[in-house]
Amino acid sequence: MKGKKLIQLLQSLSEEEFKRLQSFIQSPFHNSNKRLLAVYRLLKPHFPHFQTKQLKEERLFSQLFPGDQFDDYKLRRLFSQFTKLLEQYLTQLELEEQDFIASKLYVKALSRRDTYTQFVKEIKGLKESLVSQAYRDEENYFECIQLDYLYFNHQLTEKYTLKDDALDRMYQDLDYFYVLAKYKYGIGLKNRDRILRKKSETLLQPLLVEVASQAILSDNQLLSLYKLVWELFESPNESSFFALKDAFFPKITSLRRDDQRNIFLSGLNYTNRQINRGVHPFYKESLEWYKLGLEHDLIIENGNMTGVAFNNICLLGCTVQDFDWTRQFIEHYQAYLDPSIKEDAMTANMGVLYFHQGDFQDTISTLYNHNFSKVYQLRTRLIIARAAFEQLLLKQDVYDFLISQIEAFEKFISRDRMYATQRIDGQLNTIDLIKNCARKMRQGVAKKDLAFWMREEMTKEKKFTASNWLKEKIEFLTN
């Protein structure tokens, strides 16, 4: 069946919305073409998948135009009309959810009719509802600007009078809109730049800072949060982070979804930077930030959680030894993972949980007996090697197994070009250190000499994955 756009729009509807579509098509106000209702009835049994093999054009045409010779253009034209009607239906559904937009459209309709008194009354009501909101973001000021613009430019509005300050408000609100928008999207750019390792121009001009300090904005809750986030980027210090944490989460329900996500991501990125700098208390802070994100539904988008977020949360839970919570997290939130990675993610993170609990045999048996996809193999192979090394330190007879796993890891890396060299340097250095350490143990090198050698290796200009764990092993051998 032709009409890819039509199928995509139909598949986007919920079951209830698809049922309501029939009433919309039957309404003579919206539709006068009876064949469009026939199209709906032909498509109805195929909702929600609409397998194209079952919707042959010739068959559909014969049912819609019985007795006529097949005409591809005629059928496409009918589908096009149905698509336009469906677009109107989606717009109607959106208006039902967006009371303010519907009211604004009503005001615009009044502005084009001989209803100036009612027009002014409605404008005033909408403006009051906007100004009275405790949460005034850039969209709030933008809406105020549009309403004042509509009012000021009405042909019956007196332009030269001191009794009306619509033009003054519009001019001032433009500044406030600009300040909030620059902070908001500047923060978005900074978050993106840290992920993509890109440098964008995000300087705050002196005029922007001056406007942001004006009394009317000093009490703006959102701008106060933006300023704290900006401080994390400009002069990262812990006091700004904790001030943001204390201010953000108590107010979070009053913020728009995109602001919630933007500020949440900024705080989370800061905890990651602190961890990378070796500030160990931020493992717990990062996990708590994630927990608050889960509580306020900031990590699950459209019913899905990314594998990266799932893995990070599990690793943080294990690192701070919150084992019961981590197990519960795995059991509950695996339902939100993409089906293509669910089994891999669950198994890999159960292996990580066993490892941090010191159950090295269960770690190996869990990970070794699962056929992981390439995305998870690098991580799980390293965990198996670390678990075997732990057993070796406990004087268990696992040397041959450990070396075989290390060699398998090295072969996997050498033949698979999926991983960039700079990404795997840390893993390779760690695995090489484990291998050489195991061989020295086999040769009878004293533990203290082994610890000294490992410490010397780690002081060289090399990256090591799981460096904290390696340092723990050095302390174990030393003592």
Short précis:
The protein has helices at 4-11, 15-26, 34-43, 57-64, 72-97, 99-111, 116-131, 138-152, 166-196, 206-212, 215-218, 221-234, 238-251, 257-276, 281-295, 307-319, 323-333, 342-356, 360-368, 374-393, 399-415, 421-442, 447-458, 467-478. The protein is mainly alpha-helical and 479 residues long. Helix 9 (166-196) packs across helix 10 and helix 15 (281-295) crosses helix 16.
Percent helix range: over 70%
Mean pLDDT: 91
Total helix count? 24
Quote the beta fraction. under 5%
Overall structural class, as computed from helix and strand content, comes to mainly alpha
Principal-axes geometry comes out as flat
Identify the quaternary structure here. single chain
Terminal CA distance reads 73 Å
Largest sheet: none
Low-confidence stretches: none
Give me the Rg, rounded: 31 Å
Helix/strand order? HHHHHHHHHHHHHHHHHHHHHHHH
Give me the count of strands: 0
Characteristics:
479 residues; 24 helices; mainly alpha
Tell me what the structure shows.
Helix content is 72%, strand content 0%. With 479 residues, it is an all-alpha fold. Among the domains are: 4-97, no CATH class; 107-186, no CATH class; 373-479, no CATH class. Helix 14 runs antiparallel to helix 15. The model has no long low-confidence stretch (mean pLDDT 91).
Helix and strand layout, with pairings?
Blueprint: H1 4-11, H2 15-26, H3 34-43, H4 57-64, H5 72-97, H6 99-111, H7 116-131, H8 138-152, H9 166-196, H10 206-212, H11 215-218, H12 221-234, H13 238-251, H14 257-276, H15 281-295, H16 307-319, H17 323-333, H18 342-356, H19 360-368, H20 374-393, H21 399-415, H22 421-442, H23 447-458, H24 467-478
Helix pairs in contact: 1-5, 6-7, 7-8, 8-9, 9-10, 9-12, 9-14, 12-13, 12-14, 13-14, 14-15, 15-16, 16-17, 16-18, 17-18, 18-19, 18-20, 19-20, 20-21, 20-22, 21-22, 22-23, 23-24
